[in-house]
Predict the structure.
Amino acid sequence: MTSRSYVSNLYAPFGSWPADCVVPANADDKRYLAYGSEGFTFAFAQEKYVGKIFHDLDSLARQLKVMEYAGDCAIDQQVKGIVMPCETVISPPSIPKDERTRLVYELRDLTHRFHQKGLVHGDIKPANLLRCSPDSQLRFCDFGTSSFVGDGFVTPVYTTSYSTRHRVREREPSARTLADDYHALGMSMWEIHVGGVVSADYDVYRDLEEDATNLGWRPDLSRVGDPDIARLIEHYLDMSSGLADGSDNNDEVTFTSRVCVERTYALRDCRAYPPHSATTKTVCLECKAAARDFCPYLYRDPSIRRDGPSTPLCTICKEEAQTS
């Protein structure tokens, strides 16, 4: 008897697809998985491509050889994708705290080994990590943004919450660098150790995520209970900032969706220490629309900036100089 079970979510991770069905070739829904009649192949179909996994590699080698010699008498055997083992995904909220601590150091070591091979991953994040058999080694997946150091490969794709301020604000995409990986490494370490990021309102979180990255807002290290890991996270975020493109203008006015920003600027020609200062506020789009003075997500930049836009002269120092 033939049993049927269609894929409930075509874009779900491969390991979550049902694999207990045999579907006739003329089925209306082509999104199916099926075992071969001889028990050593496993096939699936998506859109115009059909995949076939051979557990008997000798049989695969023989068939490829026949197809090569058959030429235009056989179907096109060009590579259209990759078949990978189904491994264990990394989900920080479901991992015990002591294991999350070990995972942070494993990710650090994995990234170092990756860089030693002359590679930039370009999209380091918990979702791109797998615990692989048979030795449960941590490994990267998803190399769509990866490149060799200095090869000039450019892609406009990035994940906002793990990206540098420079990356999300650049007008034309540029090649990934070690600065991108170091920043993403620090952000991933933080997320892993605190057990993930939870938000009840996805739309609000998405806007805050965009604003925070645009402002160069760092994660809250006070939530990291281990001081050594907190310093390690800060170390990689600092390394990323040190390597970032110097053309990024930190004083440029930034328009944000939900976060108002207060910045303190030293007055021009001020000789005092600490300098006399003035505070400016950039109002977010939501507060402008609501005509409100109080922003629930107000960010006060802790640094004192110099030579800000239209910063006035320090009249206090000028008057003191005149009276002395």
About this structure: Residues 263 and 301 are 5 Å apart (CA to CA). The chain is about 30% helix and 15% strand. The first helix runs from residue 57 to 70.
